[in-house]
Amino acid sequence: MSGTPRAKDRPWLMRTYAGHSTAEASNELYRRNLAKGQTGLSVAFDLPTQTGYDPDHILARGEVGRVGVPVSHLGDMRRLFQEIPLERMNTSMTINATAMWLLALYQVVAEEHGADAAKLQGTTQNDIVKEYLSRGTHVFPPGPSLRLTTDMIAYTVNHIPKWNPINICSYHLQEAGATPVQEIAFAMSTAVAVLDAVFASGQVPEDRKGDVVARISFFVNAGVRFIEEMCKMRAFGRIWDRITRERYGIKNPKHRRFRYGVQVNSLGLTEAQPENNIQRIVLEMLAVTLSKDARARAVQLPAWNEALGLPRPWDQQWSLRIQQVLAHESDLLEYDDIFEGSHVIESKVATLVEDAEAEIERIQEMGGAMAAVESGYLKARLVASHSERRARIEAGEEKIVGVNCYESTEPNPLTADLDTAIMTVDPENEARVVSALHTWREQRDEGPAEEALGALRKAAVGTDNLMEATLRCARAGVTTGEWAWALRDVFGEYRAPTGVGGAPLSVATEAGSLLASVREKVGKTAADLGGGRLRLLVGKPGLDGHSNGAEQIAVRARDAGFEVVYQGIRLTPEQIVSAAVAEDVHCVGLSILSGSHAELVPDVLERMRTAGAQDIPVIVGGIIPSSDAAALRAAGVAAVFTPKDFGITEIIGRIVDEIRAANTLPPLEVLV
Fold first, then answer.
1. Which of 124, 220, 238 is nearest to 178 (CA)?
2. DSSP result, 406-466
3. 343 an active-site residue?
4. pLDDT (tens digit per residue) in 48-83
5. How far, in Å, are 39, 235, 236, 512 from residue 180 at the CA level?
């Protein structure tokens, strides 16, 4: 009987998303985590590696080793996996635009270990669509990006058959504001675009279509509404089964299985009362483990202090222990699906399936996921959904404990010393990484490297599968930046739509509302300064592609009456200052979540002074430790905002205050 305990199922793969500073430091961390009972690796790469830059590129400044490990060439990959048996390991690599390159490096290192490539197991994320929509580490235009993905899938099916060459990633869509319906629909539309391209390429025989579908995996998000999230997973599985059966004719049920890993939600983690994040993480994990018929195959959990900064090894261990307690101490894995036959669950799943399939059809009518990216439709829908969610939080309709309700708290011993409650990266680390890169270039045989890059360009111009040329580059000692620039020379680069212009008004503007009051304050200040409109430049310096916060500030400032200058992500300090001067703005707002603020913000301030624009106030928002915030203010930053400042309309009001102060105008009160 289904209600009778039985032998336990095997637990899901337990991972910790990790990597920092250098390959050597990350290797030590991985081996320590494996010794603690972690059963798979999840590699976090730094932003230069993700976006195809070497550590000595101008855009890499301040970003090297911050949010992940820098891997610039084969030597780094060797050190990253030293003494780790790759043939027995299941390795997930969160990499997208440069996924082919990192897989090539991984394969070469595995072969050097004596491993058989056909036995390698793991996943490369390799979902470029969500990069255009939410994460921002794209490099190439949609067409060439899809080709890279297609070539990689065809190669792995034929040569690394146990590898998951793509992880269709809806995780970042939810982080960018997606509803459960949007998360399902946008991810499934991406999967359809990828499979259509693979099968149209002619690189996979008809009788191996099932093998391709069987290696498509998904990486999803699970929020704190864990009943809805669990139903979302069941809906995902049903829609995937239908699409693969009806659209692609896949007959084997094992090939049609919805295979997914998960990292639970980071969007809902709070800087205020961060200890509450632990129970949020537990609830979110239950959404993807309670239901056997929709249970994740791999789980990685964030740490309680991720809204404060980079977690320490102890914080990551705490998250690993949460998984281990559930899997090994509870009786969860002893039962069949405990929701089978539930009318409540079935009704919710059916609604999600119906609504998601309607959205999938809408996207298909536009020409599919790639066309919906290029038109800006998908991005505009995410920005709008996120704006609506923020408005509900600000209005108190969506409760977040410790943020907009139950805000009183006892002193928190976990954060009594904020400077030691997170991990910090040695600021001298970047110089050492750059020096090591220069040594690598000097010591390699330049001839084979140049020949390999020439072969890569030739393959890119033609129609050959790019994986063989990429493997040749890896073996020849080519660097990450060189590989990416060779393809940039052929494919060009791409700046994705921001979605800001198409976002609708999301908060009340009637008389007496906070936004109406701030709008009046904006108009009065503009008049006091001589007419016209107040102009705000929202800039994202460096390689941080997390643009959600910047987009929400831009949208709300627009709704408050500002003229907003927002050019998207990946700008140098020089470009930001040039735009500020050219547009004659009244304030510059910088958004940085990658930890590069200490390097990039002072550069912007110095360039503002050199340009004679030192009277324009500069404000900064992001995940910024309190000691860093104090240093930024001492350097001349007018105001610093962190995740605890959740009221966007209030932030816009503060921006007006700083503009007035910079222009020696008397303060204005905001009346509500």
1. 220
2. S------GGGSSGGGSSB---TTHHHHHHHHHHHHHHHS-HHHHHHHHHHHHHHHHSSS-H
3. no
4. 999 999 999 999 999 999 989 999 999 999 999 999
5. 29, 10, 10, 34
Active site residue 132: no
DSSP string, 640-652: EE-TT---HHHHH
User: How far apart are the C-alpha atoms of 651 and 399, rounded to whole Å?
Assistant: 20
Q: What would the two tokens of residue 621 be?
A: 């928002």
251 belongs to the catalytic site: no
Instruction: Name the phi and psi angles at 102, rounded to 5.
Output: -70, -35
pLDDT score of 503 more than 80: no
Cα separation, 120 vs 113, whole angstroms:
12
**391 Cβ neighbours under 8 A, 6+ residues apart:** 506, 507
- Whether the predicted model's global pTM rises above the 0.85 cut: yes
Q: What is the pLDDT of residue 130?
A: 92
Active site residue 540: yes
| List 521, 540, 586, 597, catalytic entry | 540
Can 458 be counted among the known catalytic residues? no
Active-site annotation holder among 17, 30, 260, 566: 17
Whether residue 183 contacts residue 174, with contact meaning beta carbons closer than 8 Å, is answered with yes
What whole-number distance in Å separates Cα of residue 286 and Cα of residue 227? 9
Of these residues, 171, 260, 494, 566, which one is catalytic? 171
Please tell me which residue in 255, 546, 586, 597 is annotated as part of the active site. Answer: 546
Q: Confirm whether 255 is a catalytic residue.
A: no
Share of the chain above pLDDT 90, in %: 80
Backbone angles phi, psi at 531, to 5 degrees: 100, -175
In angstroms, the CA 600 to CA 611 distance is: 17
Q: Which of 666, 494, 471 is CA-nearest to residue 129?
A: 494
